[in-house]
Amino acid sequence: MEPKITQPWMKGIMISLLFIVLSLVFQFTDLSQNKYVQWTNSLLLIAALAWACNNYAKQMQGNVTFGNIFSHGFKTTAALTAILVVYTFISIKFLFPELVEKSLEEARKQMEKGGTLSESDMEKGLEMTKKFFLPFAIGGSLVVYLILGTIGSLIGAAISKKNPNPTPFEQQ
Predict the structure, then answer these.
(1) Is pLDDT at 109 greater than 90 in this prediction?
(2) Among positive and negative, which fits the CA dihedral 42, 48, 54, 57?
(3) pLDDT tens column, 52-102
(4) Percent of the chain whose pLDDT exceeds 90
(5) pTM score above 0.85
(6) What Cα–Cα distance (Å) separates residue 123 from each residue in 99, 105, 135?
(7) By the 8 A CB rule, do 103 and 117 touch?
């Protein structure tokens, strides 16, 4: 009897919904710019993908290889990345347009703290950042989610119990 498997796209939807809810909570509590929250989100994403991989191996009763598990994890990553990139666009463009100004203000503080740029250079840099904020945010989130997803899938594939069925050549 074939085991019942939760599809990677379904796990991607579940994990991305969790991160959308967390993002909304962090936005409303004004914690979205907090570095510790961002690191915690990254670690949570890696853990969620490792769980997805481990869950797949259990559903397959261990009859999997490292490559099978990694593939399942990366498919899950692709699904959640697509959803979260769309959410990033909607969030910046419609839900929280003030996020752009908050980010620019934080960037200004960091530039002033560094003290190496003149006022006109800071203004030019901030104007350029404002102009391309949405493409940078989408591209950045795409790259970050794919990298973290790859790490989570590798960890999940490494820690999952594997007991692949022997091939006919190995049985002799």
Answers:
(1) no
(2) negative
(3) 999 999 999 999 999 999 999 999 999 999 999 999 999 999 999 998 998
(4) 68
(5) yes
(6) 18, 11, 20
(7) no
Domain boundary assignment for the chain:
8-95+141-159
| pLDDT the model gives residue 84 | 96
Distance CA 119, CA 112 (A): 9
Supply 21's token pair: 């809810």
Half-sphere exposure (Cβ direction) of 118: Cα atoms closer than 13 Å: 3
Radius of gyration of the chain (CA): 21
Q: How far is CA 155 from CA 75, 87, 122, 134, 145, in A?
A: 15, 26, 41, 31, 15
Structure tokens at 161: 């119990």
Say whether pLDDT at 1 is over 70: no
Sequence-distant (6+) residues with CB within 8 A of 137 are 88, 92
Residue 171 sits at φ, ψ, to 5 deg, of -75, -15
65 SS3 class:
coil
